[in-house]
Amino acid sequence: MSVGYKAIQWNRPKIIYDIILLATVGLYIYGFITITKTISSDLDIRGVRIRAYGSAAFLLLHVILSIGPLSRLSPKFYPLLFNRRHMGVTMFFLALVHVVGFEPKIANWSLPFWNFVGALTWYHDYGNLDPLVSLFVSNSHYGNLILFPFEILGAIALVILFLMAATSHDFWLANLTAPVWKALHMGVYLAYGLLVGHVVLGALQTNKHPFLTIAVLVGMVWLLSLHLITGYREFQQDKQSLNPAADGFVEVGTVQEIPECRAKVVAIAGERVAIFKYDGKISAVSNVCQHQNGPLGEGKIIDGCITCPWHGYQYFPDSGASPPPFHERVPTFDVKVVSDRIFVRAIPNPAGTPVQPAVIS
């Protein structure tokens, strides 16, 4: 959604970020292959390419899972959040190439240097069974933790990543509804857990060097630390929840505390509320954007609308409703200003309810 309320697919910043993303992935794969062949010249180049694409997908997944908590810690990471979907789709295709291989062609001319089989063919296409059948039956040590068939974990994770990539467009967000779409895309954490098992067990069974296992553990510690730090910070903020007085209103601060066209976020009776100041008026809405639960109070008012800092979704500050043709709505709160003190009613109005703004005298 743009400021003019037109659905957009691409713009100049997005194209620049995509070019940087693809260039970075390409350089990583080239560097991985080059360095690995330099260190161990006797390795089969096809196996090296399989590992290059697999490791690129796994590293990019760590970046994707880091963006959310980093954005909660600093607005500097919002541009990455805005482009996270494209990272997710790129990560899926890297994982797909890791599994099925790569055979680029220009018209009828193949590019033999880059052609290589994927892990499915590399490990499961040299017997009498179909590779997919072999994937599920070749290793039956389901009762052994160390010898557990790690390939199965990777296959399940790939299915989850496919579903997420296929539904990454706003068309699916609108038709599945935000709660269902959000629940589906939370599957990325299940996919991550499966891939951790896939990589670690694969390393234990095929590569006795502990470096890969240690690297995976470092990545897990990094992600866990980020999420714990972010969760603790928000927990501390929510602990300062304000309780209403007898008239149902809560004093939330002064007019001077809020910059023009910006907001102050407070927790009232356990719910985060964004109080905006604009054009000599004060309005309050729920802090949760209906798109992907973005923090509206960290955004600003552009062209008369609250603009979510995550993906640009917009709402009128006095009604919490998006301008036509969009239909998103957030709850509003009654507000009053006494002298320079701001008071907000603790009980929210239904989403999209118009509320007379409080006028700053």
- Basic shape: elongated
Q: Share of helix among residues?
A: 40-55%
Q: What profile does the largest beta sheet have?
A: 5 strands, antiparallel
Question: What is the total number of structural domains?
Answer: 2
Secondary-structure-derived class: alpha+beta
Counting DSSP H or I runs of 4 or more residues, the number of helices is 11
H-E order: HHHHEEEEHHHHHHHEEEEEEEEEEE
Strand coverage percent: 15-25%
What's the total count of β strands?
A: 15
Radius of gyration, in Å, reads 25 Å
Provide the residue-averaged pLDDT: 86
Residue windows where pLDDT falls under 50 for at least 5 positions: 1-8
Determine the N-to-C terminus distance. 34 Å
Give a summary of the structure in a few sentences.
This protein is an alpha+beta fold and 361 residues long.
SSE layout and pairing:
Blueprint: H1 12-39, H2 45-73, H3 78-82, H4 84-100, E1 101-102, E2 105-106, E3 109-110, E4 116-117, H5 119-124, H6 131-137, H7 150-166, H8 170-176, H9 178-185, H10 187-206, H11 211-239, E5 249-254, E6 262-268, E7 271-278, E8 281-286, E9 300-302, E10 305-307, E11 314-315, E12 332-333, E13 335-338, E14 341-345, E15 358-359
Antiparallel strand pairs: 1-4, 2-3, 5-14, 6-7, 7-8, 8-12, 8-15, 9-10, 10-11, 13-14
Helix pairs in contact: 1-2, 2-4, 2-11, 4-7, 7-10, 8-9
